[in-house]
Amino acid sequence: TGISIVEISHRSPEFTALLDETDVNIREILEIPDNYKVLWLAGGASGLFSAIPLNLIASKDDVVDYIVTGTWSRNAAKEAEKYTNVNYVVPVPADFTGLPIEEEMNFTSGAK
């Protein structure tokens, strides 16, 4: 069509053809059997802020360790607090101008 994928409707024949082709390719590359569905979901990177701890923990009593070094890791840790106990390995800095020193890190034994 000569236009970008972000400029066409997700219901258009062009988009549907691209999605079908992508589905075939991903199945081939990852060897996904026909009895499995491939889900194409919205959410972006921040959607993983909840997905990751939910996949790691067995119960709300589990502990996950987070090292906060910037805005994204701060937001990820805050989201994880909704589902489990979060241990901040180092105190969250007021500004993000450096990396934590390994000797100051306080990891939880058995953390996820």
Short note summarizing the structure:
This protein is mostly helical. 33% of the residues lie in helices and 7% in strands. Strand 1, helix 3 and strand 2 (85-88) form a beta-alpha-beta unit.
- Let me know the number of strands: 2
Q: List the quaternary state of the chains.
A: single chain
H-E string: HHEHE
User: Strand pairing plus helix content: what structural class?
Assistant: mainly alpha
Mean pLDDT: 92
Low-confidence stretches: none
How far is the N terminus from the C terminus? 47 Å
Helical run tally: 3
Keywords:
112 residues; mainly alpha; elongated; 3 helices; 2 strands; two-stranded parallel ribbon
Can you offer a commentary on this structure?
The chain has a two-stranded parallel sheet with strand order 1-2. With 112 residues, the chain is mainly alpha-helical. The termini are far apart. Helix 3 links the parallel strand 1 and strand 2. Helix content is 33%, strand content 7%. It is built from three helices and two strands.
Summarize the helices and strands and which ones pair or pack.
Blueprint: H1 13-30, H2 48-56, E1 63-66, H3 71-80, E2 85-88
Parallel strand pairs: 1-2
